[in-house]
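MODEL INPUT / OUTPUT PAIR
PAIR INDEX: 1
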Amino acid sequence: MAIALAPFLLEQPEAQSLFPPDAIERAKRYLANIQGGVGAYSDSKGNPYIRKEISNFISKQTGLTSDPETIFISNGASECVRMMLQAMIRGPTDGILVPIPQYPLYSASIALYGGELVPYYLDEDNGWSLDVAELQRSLNEAKAKGITCRGLVFINPGNPTGQCLTEENVRELIQFCYNNRIVLMADEVYQENIYNTSRPFVSARKILGRMSEPIRSGLEIISFHTVSKGTYGECGLRGGYMELHNFDPAVVQEVYKIASINLSPNLPGQIALGLMVNPPQPGDYSYEQYIREKTGLLESLKRRARLITDAFNSLEGIVCQETEGAMYSFPKICLPPAAIAAAKAKGKAPDVMYCLELLEETGISTVPGSGFNQSPGTFHLRTTILPPEEKFDDIITRFKNFHNGFLRRYNSASSSSVRSRL
C-alpha cells in the first residue's frame, strides 16, 4: 500500500531493506494495472484488475464461477447497499425486509429512498436465531398493507447481535426469497470475525450453488463485503464491493449507471480490497508474518468476546447471548421502574438515559438498543469488543461498578415510591 501510494519510494536505495520483496512485486503489479496512478479515476465499477482479484476470491471461497463484470467496488460496502436500495425502491409501497435489531444503515437508507422498512424479529431467547414463520408473518402483514417486498436483508455474522447463522438458516432464507420472488441481500462484511466452532461462516452464494434448480439459477442474490471489518479494520480507507448474481444483464447495466453517478471509487480503498481478498500465499516472503498477525488478532478478539459476555451475564438484570461473531455484544437490560419513569420525565428512551449515565460516570461509550430498533418493551445496549485486550479488566470493572450503582440508585427510588404510597 505504501509503495502504491508513493511509487518514488522504489527509487530509494533503502527500498529493498525497508519493504519485503513480495510487497515490492505486488505494488509494481498494481501500479502497472492502474492507469494514471492512485490519484486518477478508475472505471465506475472499480479497477478491472482488482475486480478480477475479487472474482477469484469468490470462486475460491464458493467453488463456483464469478464474473468480474457483475462485481462493483465502492467507497465502503454501505455505498453498495445504498445503490441497490435506490435501484429497488420505486415508491412508498415498496418494502425491504430487515432483521430487528438492525443496522441503522438500512432504516435510514430505506427512508431516504421513500420505501417501507418491513421488520422481521430475531429470536433473542434462542441466540438471536432466525424463524421462517416470523418472516412469513412479516411478509403477510406487509402484503395486507399493500406493501410489495422487493428485497430481504440478512446480516451474517450479525450487527448488532453478534450471532452466526447456520447453513440451514441461510438455506431457508434462500428458499423463502425464491418462493416469494424477493431479492436476497447478503450482508457478509463480518465473515472473518467468527469466534465459535459450531457455526462457521458459509457464504450464501456457496449455499445457493449447492441447491437444486430452478432455485440455483433463479434467485437474485447480492453479496456485500468490505475491508472495514475482519482483521484489517481499515474503515477509513473506504473499500467495499458487491457481487450481483443471477441478475439480468440489463439490470446490471442500470446499476452501472447508478455507480457512474459517483464517478469512481477511491483507489487506495480498491487496493486495500485487493490485498484483503488476495493476501500473501504459502511460500511468499510475508506469508508467515501475515498468518501470525491474523491468527493472533482473531484469537484475541475471541478472548475479548468471551470476557464481555461472561461479564454481562454475571450482573443482576442483564442477559447477554453468546457473541459468536462480528465485533459486538448486545445485552438485554432489565431496568427498574423508577429508572424508566426518570427517563420519561427527561424525555428520553430508558436505554438512552442508561447509556448516557454510563458515559458520564465511566467514559464508556455504548449505543442504546433503541438506535437499532428492538422488540417492544425490551431495552438493550450495543458495545464493541475492540478495545485493547489489556484494558478489558478495567473496562469490565468500571461497567460493573456503574451498573450495580445504577440498580441501587433506582431500586431505592422505586422502594421509596412504594413506601410513600403506603
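PAIR INDEX: 2
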Amino acid sequence: MVDANETDSYGWPGGEFPINLGGFYPTWEFYDLTENVTNGTNTTTGVNQPIGGRIKLCRKLLFCEYSAINICKKTKLNICQQCSMVKYAVFTTAVILLGLLIIIGNSAVIWSVRKNQKEEQSISELLKTSLAVADLCSGIYIFVPILPNIVWTANHSFNELKTSVIELRGTTHTSIIGIIFLLIFLSNLYQLTAYCLIRLYVTVYPFRALSFTRKFNIQLILGVWLLAFISATMPLWFPTVFDFYYQHDYFIYWFEVLPKQKSQLYLIALFLYVVIPYFIMTTSTLTTLIVVRKKLNTSRQLTSKQDAIDKKERIVTRNVAIMIFGFTITTAPLFVVNGLLNIKLIKCATNTNAPVFTFYMFYSRSIVNVLVYIATDNKFLRSFFQRSGQESSVNTKTQDSTTLVTLVTPVVPDYIQS
C-alpha cells in the first residue's frame, strides 16, 4: 500500500495534476493514494482517471525489476537491490558495440563507393552512399544522446527519472533531438523505397533512364532527404495532438499523443510513416520482378543468353529482397509491441523486456545493408584488399557484369545493379 503521507510534487491531490504531462499510456500508470478514492474525470486534463490517485512510470527498465519503480523511488538505481549492475554493464556494452558496428560498417560502405566510383556517379551509387550516411547517423545517435541517457539513468532514482520525463516533455531540446531521430529513421525507409521505385522505372523505361544527369541524381537524393525532414516535423504541425517526449526505457526522444486525444491517432501516424512507404517498396520490387520475367520470356532473339541474364536478374532481385526482408524483421516487432502497448494488451506491470529488445533490434537495421554488401558484392570486399595493379581485372569483371544486365533492357546503365 502506498504511504498516504508521502509527498509528491507530481501527484494529485497535494498538487494540481500537470497539464503538460503528455501521453498517459504507455508512458504513465496511475494508482490510488488512499483506499477511499472518488473516481471521476480530472478537470485539468479532461481524462477519465481516478481523482486522488498518483502517477508512476509505466514500463520497467531492462536492468531493473518492475518493483524498483516503487522501491527505488529515492535510491539511485546503481545501488538499488532491485536493479542488476551486471545486466546494466552487459546492456551498455552491447549498445556500444552496436553503435561501433554501425559506424564502422557504413563508413566502409561510403569509402568503398567513393573508391570505386566512376567519373559520373549513377543514381544507384548516390543512393547507396546516401543510405549509408543515414545509417551512419544512427550509429552516432547511439553515442549522442542514447549512451549518456543510459549512464544518467543508472545514477539517479526513479523519482528523479519521473521528474525528468515530465519536465523534458515538449521542450525545444526534446523536440529537436526527437525530430533528428525520426529524420534518421524516415530517411532510411524513404531511400530504400526510392531505390525500389527507381529500379522499377529503369526496368520499364530503360531509354528514359539514360537522361538521368548528375544534377538530376543529386536533386533526387536531396528531395528524398527533404521529404524525410518534412515528415519528421509532422508532429509539430499539430501541437494540440502530438508532442515530443523522453521515452525512459528506450533512452530516446519520440513523439506521443496528447492526453485529450485518442491513442488510435498514434497508430494512424505510424501507419502513414511506415506502412504506406513499406507497401510501395514491396509492391515496386514485386512489379520489377514481373516486368523482368516478362521481358525475358518475350526476347526470343536473346534465347542463347537467357540463362545468364536470368541468373543475373535473380541475383539483383534477391539482393533487394534481402534488404527489404532485413528491414521487415528488424522493424516490424517494434511496431507490433508498441501497438499492443497502446491498446493495453501489454500492461504496465507485465514483467517483460520485449519493448526494449524490439527497439534495439529495430536499431540494428542500420547494419543489415552492410551485411548484404559483404555477402553479395565482391567489389565491396575487394576495395579493402586489392592492389592498384589488380584494378584492371576487377574493372573487366565489373563491365562483364554490367553487360549481362543491359541484355535484359538494352543500353540500360548500372542503375539496376545491386
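PAIR 2 NOTE: Residues 306-342 form the longest helix (37 residues).
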